[in-house]
Specification:
By secondary structure, the protein is mostly beta strands. The chain is built from no helices and 26 strands.
Length: 338
């Protein structure tokens, strides 16, 4: 979300071809213009919602094109919905099936895109500058020691560089990992935020403040609860892991190998406060302060949903948007002001 409260919602809907990627822009909950088709109306086949990130004056969208290239693409738009150049392919040709993209904008305006390469079940990231040029000679590899499968990345970008979170499989168990990279794409550190007693089947969510502090959220398959762990820019814990949901099991939507979004999301403001969102059969959220202390009980439960809900916080904190898909397959959202 931009400082002025501008945000974008990405979705896939029937068209010609069968499904295409779209986005709608909003400012403080008020729509700006009409739905914008971001994928190629002739060639692309997009069967899952695109990833979107909003910055000051622009929005970037990433999606997987399944019809011809099986590649990850990214495209920029102004916050008025005007394209800022053509779509750029970010996954290299030797990634034969690149999918599940995530995207973030850093303060310099570079778009950082992460994806899964199913050829080797590895997670990669690439940065695209405002001109559309790829910044890294080769994509940055996010890896966990002793893994067999890495998949379903999330990404965040800030003044310190960027961080990628993903799910790693170890035999029959899974865990969430985070790898921090500097702005040049060099690895800084890797950590595992999930306690040994947890097993994570869903993709984790990640978000950061401008100074590099970050928070990771995941869904524990044993208890069906959503947890979050905050860190400073050096990767030091801020408090312990917190359980966000107070009532109700958090449903498991993804099979772990598709690009279906996970049932939890998280968004951090510049002051380090954050909001966790999740889905049971309804949409919920819970805000936390910069010390990872809950600021209220869980909120929601009014709206039925069949797909995961998400949250996005304004960089200045306080305001945020809660997004979900209702049981009629329509995308809904509510804007919360301080």
């Amino acid at each position: 979300m931009a400082h002025d409260g501008t945000y974008a919602i990405g979705f896939a809907k029937a068209g010609a071809p069968p499904f295409a990627a779209y986005l709608t822009l909003f400012t403080a909950g008020v729509p700006i213009g009409v739905d914008i088709e971001v994928s190629d109306p002739v060639l692309d086949f997009v069967d899952n919602p695109p990833a979107v990130a909003a910055g000051d004056g622009e929005v970037v969208v990433a999606w997987t094109e399944r019809g011809t290239t099986f590649a990850v693409w990214v495209r920029r738009f102004t916050t008025a919905g005007v394209p800022m150049g053509s779509a750029v392919r970010v996954s290299p040709p030797d990634h034969f099936v690149a999918y599940a993209p995530a995207v973030a904008l850093d303060p310099a305006g570079d778009a950082v895109v992460a994806w899964t390469d199913s050829g080797g079940w590895e997670v990669y990231a690439q940065a695209v500058d405002p001109s559309g040029a790829l910044r890294f000679a080769a994509p940055a590899l996010a890896s966990s020691p002793g893994h067999s499968v890495d998949r379903q990345p999330a990404v965040t970008a800030d003044d310190a560089g960027f961080a990628v979170a993903w799910t790693a499989t170890y035999g029959v168990l899974t865990a969430a990992f985070v790898q921090r990279f500097d702005p040049a794409g060099a690895s800084m550190f890797t950590l595992n935020p999930t306690p040994a007693s947890h097993s994570v089947l869903n993709a984790p969510a990640i978000s950061s403040s401008s100074d590099g502090a970050f928070v990771v959220a995941w869904n524990d398959e044993w208890t069906f609860d959503v947890f979050a762990q905050a860190y400073d820019a050096a990767g030091v814990h801020i408090g312990g892991a917190v359980r966000a949901n107070q009532t109700g099991a958090v449903y498991f939507y993804s099979d772990g190998f598709s690009d279906t979004p996970p049932p939890q999301s998280v968004s951090m403001a510049c002051d380090g406060s954050f909001v966790v969102g999740w889905t049971t059969d309804r949409a919920w959220f819970r805000p936390y302060d910069a010390a990872a202390r809950p600021m209220s009980d869980e909120t929601g439960g009014t709206y039925r949903t069949e797909l995961p809900a998400s949250v996005a916080v304004a960089p200045s904190g306080g305001s945020f948007v809660h997004v979900w898909t209702d049981d009629a397959q329509s995308v809904q959202h509510e804007w919360y002001a301080p």
